[in-house]
Amino acid sequence: MIRTLSVGGDPRDELKCRLKFLQDVEMPLLSSEFAEAGYLGSAALRVYSEREIRDATRLLADLSGPLREADPGDPVRLNDCVALRDADEPNAEEFVVHAPGLVVRAPGFLSADSALGAAVLGKRVGDPVIVETPAGSRSYVLQRIRRSSS
User: Fold this and answer.
1) Count of structural domains, the chain
2) For labeling, which of 21, 102, 140, 143 is most exposed (least CB within 10 Å)?
3) Other CB atoms within 10 Å distance of the CB of residue 1
4) Is residue 120 within 8 Å of residue 36, measured between CB atoms?
5) Beta partners for residue 111, in sequence order
């Protein structure tokens, strides 16, 4: 199961926290300790982390402005914050559906090219969302759509 946000929280807080960790902890480590130890994968990890920093910064810019409820009947689109309730769970979970190809490892973010991300795009509040997984079919109900006002 993906790690998601509590419903009503601001997903940007998790992304800001991840970005700060990348900039203040991960990148300095990749620049010093791993490189000094001759770790062969440090260059590749550094490139990956630099890309994640770039993508997280871009996504935060795309998500600027206060989150507001989508208009009734509006479909889910990229960068929307959606709340889904699993048919087998009492509580909804919330996440942001971001553009495919972005490297975003913060909790509560899901790529549109993932099975669940692709399934929720275009759905409206109240719609069922069915996802095929290796373990079988999973059913959700879309309960809320919030989007940045930018």
Assistant:
1) 1
2) 21
3) 7
4) no
5) 98
Q: What is the pTM of this model?
A: 0.78
Give backbone dihedrals phi and psi of 115, rounded to 5 degrees, phi first. Answer: -60, -45
Domain residues for the domain of 81 are: 1-150
Whole-number Cα distances in Å, 118 to 36, 70, 72, 143? 42, 19, 21, 17
Task: Please report, as a single letter, which amino acid is at residue 105.
Answer: R
What is the CATH number for 113? 3.10.50.30
How far the first Cα of the chain sits from its last, in Å, is 30
Structure tokens of 40?
């062969």
Dump pLDDT digits (tens) for 82-111: 999 987 888 888 889 999 988 888 888 999
Kindly report, residue by residue over 120-140, the tens digit of the pLDDT: 999 999 999 999 888 889 999
